[in-house]
Design a protein that fits this description.
Shape: globular
InterPro entries: KinB-signalling_activ
Number of domains: 1
Distance between the termini: 39 Å
Largest sheet: none
Organism: Oceanobacillus kimchii
Order of helices and strands: HHHHHHH
Radius of gyration: 22 Å
Protein name: KinB-signaling pathway activation protein
Structural class: mainly alpha
Keywords: Membrane, Transmembrane, Transmembrane helix
Strand content: under 5%
Pfam families: KbaA
Oligomer: single chain
Number of strands: 0
Length: about 220
Amino acid sequence: MNTRILVGFLWKTFWLGGLAGLIASFFVKPEQYLNYMQPFDGMEILGLIVFFLGLGLTFATISLTGFFAYLFVHRMGQSLFKGYWSTVQVGLIIFILFDIIYFPYRSADNVELYWFILLAAALLLIGWIVAKIKAKETNKKAFIPTLFFMVVFTTVEWVPGLMVDGTDYAWLMVVPLLVSNTYQILNLHRLNFQEKKPQVQGSNGQDKKSHNKKKKK
């Protein structure tokens, strides 16, 4: 992959995560915006927009770091576990889903267990949908690695948000993480195709030119 394609990929991921965090703030923290609507204070609202956009950009950066870590872990897992790597990934997915149900429930006060079960189910469902799309666009073998990335790495990246008291910043963190991770995993193979496409066209163009020269001769 050439530098121009890589920089464009990183740049789009960065800003998608930032915008996702900003949009999420309108739903998670609406009272902060409403406080400055009556009377209207444009500078304070602009300050909030910049703050939540910056927060989303920060989480997008975490997502970028996690994605490159995933690429390294995936390669290392294939080398270490060979044909058992898929089984190991499934085991880690199950462990992480259990982890985000059991341990937060033990430390939470007055929060019902089913909320954590719904949280894990929602994360699994989103990961499952993304993995199905990835497998459809590439091959069936991509399903488990994609599900592994969406569930395990999103959860690992989300740990700081889960440790904060209250759920507001946990939601403000997970939305840009999911958007950024989804964009990265679904567009990696498309970027490879974009890189190869001009080369194929160029080679075809050269073949056609050489063919035309032969005809003229």
